[in-house]
Amino acid sequence: MAPVFGVRPQTIDFNDSIFGCRKRTILGVFILVVQLAVVADPLQGGEPDARYDSIAVRLIETGLRTTEAYDMLKSLTAKAGHRLSGSEGAAAAVELTRQMMKERGFDRIHLEPVMVPRWVRGPREEAIIVREGEGGADLLTVCALGGSVGTGDGGVGGDVVEVRSFDQLHELGQAAHGKIVFFNRPFDRAKLNTFEAYGGAVDQRSRGAIEASKSGAVAVLVRSMTHALDDVPHTGAMGYVDSVRKIPAAAISTLDADYLSNLLKSGTHVTVRLTLSCQTLPDVPSANVVGELTGTEFPNEVIVVGGHLDSWDKGTGAHDDGAGCVQAIEALHLLKTLELRPKRTIRAVMFMNEENGVRGGKGYAVAPERTGEIHVAGVESDRGGFAPRGIAVQADSTILAKVVRWRSFFEKLNAGNIIPGYSGVDISPLVEKGVPGFGLDVENHRYFDYHHSDNDTIDKVNPRELELGAIVEALLCYLIAEEGL
Amino acid sequence: MAPVFGVRPQTIDFNDSIFGCRKRTILGVFILVVQLAVVADPLQGGEPDARYDSIAVRLIETGLRTTEAYDMLKSLTAKAGHRLSGSEGAAAAVELTRQMMKERGFDRIHLEPVMVPRWVRGPREEAIIVREGEGGADLLTVCALGGSVGTGDGGVGGDVVEVRSFDQLHELGQAAHGKIVFFNRPFDRAKLNTFEAYGGAVDQRSRGAIEASKSGAVAVLVRSMTHALDDVPHTGAMGYVDSVRKIPAAAISTLDADYLSNLLKSGTHVTVRLTLSCQTLPDVPSANVVGELTGTEFPNEVIVVGGHLDSWDKGTGAHDDGAGCVQAIEALHLLKTLELRPKRTIRAVMFMNEENGVRGGKGYAVAPERTGEIHVAGVESDRGGFAPRGIAVQADSTILAKVVRWRSFFEKLNAGNIIPGYSGVDISPLVEKGVPGFGLDVENHRYFDYHHSDNDTIDKVNPRELELGAIVEALLCYLIAEEGL
């Protein structure tokens, strides 16, 4: 496609999308106006700053030659393992990432203490299904949902009743009393964006125990939040309210959810005994890990870039969100390597406790260290370390328009999809205070195959895709640090 | 981002990229012109045909609900296994895909015979490295390159000399005589597009034996064509010319390439004995598999969509190119399911023998069945069954501009990246005759980790990503079938 009057190629679709391909007369007028405009004021119009084009290219050439982000992630997942808040792994991860920042010569490296919840899974999680009249018993593949109460050693038994929504549950009325409620609404596979499918199903996990308890149920089983059909249960946060009894809650693998559902469909009367040894212990101290490239002109104006250091206790949280953590460190490291000292401070933050409390994100926003600081932006990568597609902008239309003007730089990184959208959980306390939030948007079809499960391990991460995410963050942070918002 | 005067959101970047954000006056004039244009002739301007928007949505909702493409690929790879031209697997694949077309009710299903080369690997491929002075020996992980001559039972022995380019080889002069030349130039990791990295290294595989033989070498070892650092050799086509002696050629895993290189760097004198039992047998009959949705208005105007049915004899060719084959079948199946009977014929072709001869592609273009047919377009998916990014257009600027005007439909499929580029090997004989070619452009960072190796198996394919590629092809074919080019 040949440029028209030095205007970038994508302008051609614009012409066409407005005028239609046959509207040559008005198209001619339009081109004339464009031409006059460009001629009239070349200083303001035309190509964006060639400096950033060059920086985008240097970031790619520097970053993609290495596997820095991947090597950090390998180290983090191998040495710390899973990093559930309050665990030994989480404590090890704090030290490991502090050390990574030190080795890369960041400024003002420090920990910011936060108290975190401590939920522990314990040794037992078991669901035995007993088929009436057959005398047989078999095991369902389950795991406790994060935050669930335990069942006691004897477990909790009950007949299973399947529902696909809270409405269905409420329609059951007394019929749910004394039962184990089995929430089995699958992901809507037709959603192109897998996060929408997740958002459309996750109420079963997060509020299922509350709603079932209101109906007198004794426990809940929740279909795992995943597109995959396999025998791996996916954990995740669930909640209680004080006004109803806290009942145990477990995720069941999608294969066993289908199995159980088919049993029920066949008219079989199904009783399950669920045993969970999980419990919540008192809060323990932990910390966010913070390091930065201090701004040369406006050191108190801060761009935060981060991910969450904690994970669930299944797999090793490679995608969720070890990836986001090492990408933030690598973003700063890339800028340092290229000797791009930013005007404003760019700060990497490893947030603690996103999964079950957001204590790190909330704590960061109000920590004493914030006094005198102005937060210009928050950037988060928490959708897996997959190939980046672009940036989701959680800010007003003026800021969105400003970032959209940088699109050509991000197109060089295959990440030109700049859209309004959600940024990230850890930076949400900043966003709520009016700070513009940015979320790394990635190719997400595979994400929920791994999410919150034993599948989330380093072998699912591609070194180039992970590094490219770090490159996109580096460029975004640097642009904001130099140009402001 | 709020639409301006009903104009699509991306118009905003256009304004900005031309005028700069502060150029409000001229922006005002521009918007006025747009507004007048839209008001002046609403029938010609404004939004593109809402019908295709709706079709894009229906294709997603129909396709992504299923795992049709994946189920076909599972069947193909499990039942046929690898499908090297002339192998039993290739013959089985012809029958399997013909059957898949039958089950889906395609029109005019038939085979178009082609003669294909028959190269067989044989039972032995072995490279033993002997370290001088130590008396030890160890095995390097190698596999014969496709088309290589064998070594005879005794193998071929020689000292190893490493080069990274043909220039380096030629500088060696007589020093390469009687040696085994080890081509060890790695992929340039800094290339964002992995196909560029491949293109920058693959001369070592394709022409290495010719150039080394000219220098009097007795065999070649070629670093595997991959970004991955692992112990899996990657095969692929290599050639000879009649004017120089044909010497054996093998790929060596990247780990062992590094190992061998480090040995040589340390000053160790390294001798290798290479034994390959591969050989080329006489050509055998095979076939392209063809089925279509015959056009309702212009049945002799044809849009071909395909992939290649043959694979290398490592792994099961899941990404290369089982994916492209099942996507073509699924593209037609989706249109049938939605009862979208095209005006022009949309034809799925499973091309035979892309990997080592392109006999299928060449044969299709000149087959007797082509008499009276006009080929409007060729569409190929042969870059792996990964998440689609867009469409590479190998055609003149008028056709490119036409397809770019359809971008908004493809953006609905996360595949709006419509760019000039290469289409596909199998349709290249059509493209050479002036037929516009279209290649499915995909997220390609992982591709060469699997390509032409035992790694290329169904577990590396994500059902949603694969299906989405089929959806993109369905939409592209249908648009061309309805609108022409």
Task: Give an overview of the whole structure.
- The structure is a homodimer of 485-residue chains.
- Chain A is α/β, with parallel strands linked by helices and 485 residues long.
- Chain A has 3 domains: 46 residues, no CATH class; 270 residues, Zn peptidases (Aminopeptidase, 3-Layer(aba) Sandwich), CATH 3.40.630; 156 residues, 3-Layer(bba) Sandwich (Glucose Oxidase, domain 1).
- Chain A is 36% helix and 24% strand.
- In chain A, the strands form 2 sheets. An 8-stranded mixed β-sheet of chain A has the order 1-10-12-11-13-16-14-15, with helices on both faces. Chain A has an 8-stranded mixed β-sheet with strand order 3-2-9-5-6-7-8-4.
- The longest helix of chain A has 21 residues.
- Chain A is elongated and about 75 Å long.
- The N terminus of chain A is likely disordered.
- At the A-B interface, α1, α2, α12 and α16 of A face α1, α2, α12 and α16 of B.
Give a short synopsis of this structure.
The structure is a homodimer of 485-residue chains. By secondary structure, chain A is an alpha/beta fold.
Strand order of the largest sheet of chain A: 1-10-12-11-13-16-14-15
- CATH topology grouping of the largest domain in chain A: Aminopeptidase
- Residue stretches of chain A low in confidence (pLDDT < 50, at least 5 long) are 1-46
Characterize the quaternary organization of these chains: homodimer
- The tally of strands of chain A reads 16
Mean pLDDT of chain A, as a whole number?
91
Q: How many individual domains of chain A?
A: 3
Overall 3D shape of chain A: elongated
The separation of the N and C termini of chain A measures 33 Å
CATH superfamily name of the largest domain in chain A?
Answer: Zn peptidases
Biggest interface, which chains? A-B, 65 and 65 residues
Q: Assign the structural class of chain A, choosing from mainly alpha, mainly beta, alpha/beta, alpha+beta, or little secondary structure.
A: alpha/beta
